[in-house]
């Protein structure tokens, strides 16, 4: 199997993971809204969806067009980081339970979660996003995508963290 084919399989698996997240998110949003949940930051959400979709597509395009040949140590190290990021992401999702969402929806009286990975970071899911944003493209040697996504994601996260922190402070 060539690197490009293996990388494509990996990106498709990550894409399927994103679909699973959206299913969980939609279910949790319905639960939150049925309990008076209030959504904040709707304006940046379409940008986030576009950026994350472009990230996966961009990595694939870069690998298939440029045909990079990254060193094996880089490939395996970055793959380990991708897997660690997925584990952290799902630890966040299971820890937050019905409160987890891809949108910023706060249920009044829900309280802040301080268990699981939230004992160590206030926003561990974003740690997973940052790690994956750098590591996933580098599995295939797609350094342009890794760099571009990291810069654009930093700008998006500045907005997202502000919105989320304000929403949580109001709750």
Query: What value does the average pLDDT take?
Result: 96
Query: Largest beta sheet: what is the strand line-up?
Result: 1-2
- Element order: H for helix, E for strand: HEHHEHH
- Unreliable parts: none
- In helices, the fraction of residues equals over 70%
In DSSP terms (H or I, runs of 4 or more residues), the helix count works out at 5
Main sheet, how many strands, which sense, barrel?
2 strands, antiparallel
State the total count of DSSP E strands. Answer: 2
* C-alpha Rg (nearest Å): 17 Å
Q: Structural class, judged by helices and strands?
A: mainly alpha
Label the overall shape. elongated
In short:
The protein is mainly α and 171 residues long.
Helices, strands, pairings?
Blueprint: H1 3-34, E1 38-40, H2 45-66, H3 72-96, E2 104-106, H4 124-139, H5 143-170
Antiparallel strand pairs: 1-2
Helix pairs in contact: 1-2, 2-5, 3-4, 4-5
Task: Please provide a written account of the structure.
The chain has a two-stranded antiparallel sheet with strand order 1-2. It is built from 5 helices and 2 strands; from the N terminus they run αβααβαα. The chain has one domain. With 171 residues, it is mainly α.
List keywords for this structure.
single chain, 171 residues, two-stranded antiparallel sheet, 72% helix, mainly alpha, 2 strands, 4% strand
